[in-house]
Amino acid sequence: MDVDQEQVFLRHIAPLLHEKGAVKIFFGGQWNILVQRPTYVAELLRQEHIYQKSGNQKKIPYSVLAEFLGSNIISARGEEWRQYRAVIGPGLTTSFEVEPFLEHARQLCSILLQLQGSCPRRGVLVQEPLQRYSSANLLRFILGQPQLAEKIMGHDPVSLHQVQLTLKRYLFQPIYMSFPVLDRLSLIIPSRIRARQLVREFAAKLQASVLEGDGLEGSAGNRLVNAWRDGLLTDQQFRDNLMVLYVAGQENPQLLMTSTLYLLAKHPNVQTRLRQEIRSSSMATVPNPDWTRLPYLTATILECLRLFPPISQLINRRVSQPTQLGGHLDLPAGTYVGYHSYATNRDPVAWGVTANEFEPLRWGTTHEQVSQTYRHVKARAEFISFHGGARACLGEKFAMLEMRTMLLVLVHRLQWRLDPDWTDRMAPAGPLHPRGLRVVFSPCDEQINCSS
Fold first, then answer.
1. Are 52 and 318 in contact (CB under 8 A)?
2. Distance, C-alpha 278 to centroid of its chain
3. Where are the domains of the chain?
4. For the chain, which has fewer Cβ within 10 Å, the N-terminal or C-terminal residue?
């Protein structure tokens, strides 16, 4: 289906959502309440006893999406969630070694230049190399599989990578996102038969890859395997949490990387300023960069996250008892409620008349200012790309380090622009990102200030 979900949202949903702060929307086979106003979002995040997590495994258990991820650390609640967090959490919030990130980024840089050299008259389709890069980081740091990470960045990527590329084409089709009841007909719809086959194939390959190697001690993957072997997790719990670790830890950063390349290609002045900061600080040539000396880099990443949050819409909370959202919106028990991160992050009351503009300097010019702005808008639920409350994203630290190292290397070594023949549009459904993004890369001489 040839639609742009951003344009559909802006034309048909955004005006009323901005006016009312919340709207009723049909999605996932039923009517839901979708909120945008930061005060409403803050209430959802803080009052988890009322707005309880309820993922696809509860909402649409017969769907391909439910089979894909099952019940996991993101969708579970109560004691089940606490058990998953105790097992996985320490492996996500630990301190990560920087040098392997930098090495992967240098390899990515080489891959992009090689691909550009093979098709000099058109831009590079960035999805595949960015998936390799984000997968390698996930395998190395989260699942604790450095040898597999090395293979996926090599010339012959592992089959897991190829299956995932194919699977993505089947998962987020608009008609099945709105009418998942059609998945009940999976046995007679060839594309859904194939989708389920790919889900099972990917899950089997992922489990085999993790169990074949000895995971790095203390990694989330290693802790997950040990919990399963010790009988703390069932086969299904092990499988579901391994899947969500891979998908959330790889897919979401990749989406952000894609949107970041897109925004920097559209705003060469930001590329130039970033390059000046990186080169004047000499941080691109040291093994452990001091990120406090690169405030514009951090501000740029946060601004990309603000404008294009990887999960732009999330409806995964169910009202446990009759309540009033914001003190006046009556919600019966059983109502599904969610928020629109794209809209909340661009709320004009919170962000002003330039809410839709790409302006990294809105975050500040020093490390202290950027950090203070971030804490302020996150606490007020005006910036929810990492969600918030007790269920805030555990992978935030990992994702930010991954983005910092990637941009540090790429901006230092490359300059890029949009392929003039690429059609500027977003994906039709599912995670928000530029569809089929093509970018023209060229090396950037370290001795000159490149003009992007």
1. yes
2. 25
3. 5-443
4. N
